[in-house]
Design brief:
alpha/beta; 9-stranded mixed beta sheet; 3-stranded mixed beta sheet; 12 helices; 14 strands; globular
Length: 409
């Protein structure tokens, strides 16, 4: 405003006596030579005064508007209006990782992981800040599905939105869904996939995307980024489900299970799925789950639930996020969750309805996709989109009667 004082002093009469305003250094005698009659000279003077005074007002307004815009769009306000991750630059490579003993004997993808293992924050490309605006006045609990999905898995996401991941009020429990993803490919391929996700999010408002390479070895990073997002943008979720986009999750049965938790409204510990005990790191470098000693020296993993899908409470989610701040990232996300639980002295539990490694069918004479096998469970793994679509609709058939089926085993 200090810049306006001289102008304001000179043009203080603009609003009160507009007809008497004359901007500084306007000498009408210099232009009067163009006209030889008094009438034409007066007409020119009037027109010139109007033009000059209008320009003066525009200058004042421009300065005022510019100053107000500076205040509205200040860097501080822009930062406050966006999720913290959106302002975070891409993490740089840690070249000192090459000093680890035996580093250059490791597969390239392991080396790449070690170079960027320290990276915890990446720019957020897509988010849904209003996802958790759930009506809480009537006391309904809130169940958030967080589904890990690669950018290219459009068909899987499309089917899940029509089946078990559909957002709805299920038996008094609000269900909301987000798909967790990074980026895939390079050049035009990456641009097209990012555009696809952008269009999906515009239509469905259910995509969380960060600017990191979406790969098997970055699943833990994806999980930690989600927990951080949840704490900042979805603190009202009472219970959560984490799972892959190729699972069949009977979310109806999940709701029944969560409603049966007694006095646990999400404020107490809960972490359940297919419990794995006495699992050891796989040292075979031909395995998808290869973990060299340079990443994990221990010979035994902490108890954990299979990453195909597990349920946990708001309390446990926050605790895991807190523990993760002091535990170095490791590639296998479900193992890492177990490490965080152990650090917090919390135990994962086994749920008999979770078949993360696939359902065991007692006879080859039985159809492995018979809906009666899946009506009572809460999770099965390794399904194609068409199988999920068919199975979901089959288990909801009103005329489905599993009691009548008899098979000669």
């Amino acid at each position: 405003m200090d810049r306006l004082l001289p102008l304001y002093t000179h043009f203080s009469g603009v609003l009160k006596h507009f007809e008497n305003i004359r901007c500084p250094q306007v000498n009408m005698e210099k232009v009067s030579w163009m006209y030889r009659t008094r009438g034409r000279r007066r007409a020119l003077e009037t027109a010139a005064l109007l033009i000059m005074n209008s320009l003066c007002l525009l200058v004042i307004l421009k300065i005022l508007v510019h100053e107000n815009c500076d205040k509205i769009t200040s860097q501080k306000m822009v930062r406050e209006a966006q999720p913290p991750a959106t302002m975070t630059p891409t993490c740089e490579q840690n070249m000192s990782a090459a000093n680890i003993e035996g580093f250059f004997t490791l597969p390239t993808y392991i080396q790449e992981f070690l170079y960027y293992r320290h990276c915890r924050y990446f720019p957020m490309l897509l988010t849904v800040p209003n996802k958790c605006s759930i009506p809480k006045g009537s006391g309904e609990p809130f169940f958030l599905l967080a589904i890990k999905s690669s950018p290219k898995n459009y068909e899987r996401r499309a089917v899940l939105r029509k089946t078990w991941a559909a957002e709805r009020l299920q038996n008094g429990v609000w269900i909301r869904t987000v798909f967790l993803t990074g980026t895939t490919g390079t050049g035009f391929d990456k641009q097209r996939l990012n555009k696809l996700l952008e269009l999906e999010n515009k239509r469905y408002q259910d995509i969380l995307q960060w600017d990191f390479a979406d790969s098997f070895y970055n699943l833990t990073l994806k999980q930690v980024l989600f927990l951080d997002w949840m704490q900042n943008w979805c603190p009202t979720a009472d219970f959560l489900f984490n799972g892959d986009d190729d699972v069949f999750a009977n979310t109806d049965n999940m709701v029944e299970f969560l409603k049966g938790q007694g006095d646990n409204d999400g404020s107490k510990h809960l972490f359940t799925g297919q419990l794995l005990l006495d699992s050891v790191p796989i040292r075979d470098n031909t395995s998808k789950y290869f973990i060299p000693e340079q990443i994990e020296k221990a010979d035994l993993y902490a108890p954990y639930c299979s990453g195909g899908g597990y349920l946990y409470s708001r309390f446990t989610a926050r605790t895991i996020l807190q523990m993760s701040q002091s535990i170095t990232l490791m590639p296998i996300d479900d193992v890492y969750m177990g490490m965080c639980l152990k650090q917090a002295k919390l135990q994962p539990t086994d749920h008999q309805g979770v078949w993360a490694d696939g359902l065991i069918i007692p006879s080859a004479k039985l159809d492995i996709y018979d809906p009666c096998h899946y009506r009572e469970i809460i999770l099965g793994h390794k399904f194609l989109p068409d199988q999920i679509y068919l199975l979901w609709n089959e288990i909801h058939r009103k005329d489905l009667d599993c009691a009548k089926k008899e098979v000669d085993l």
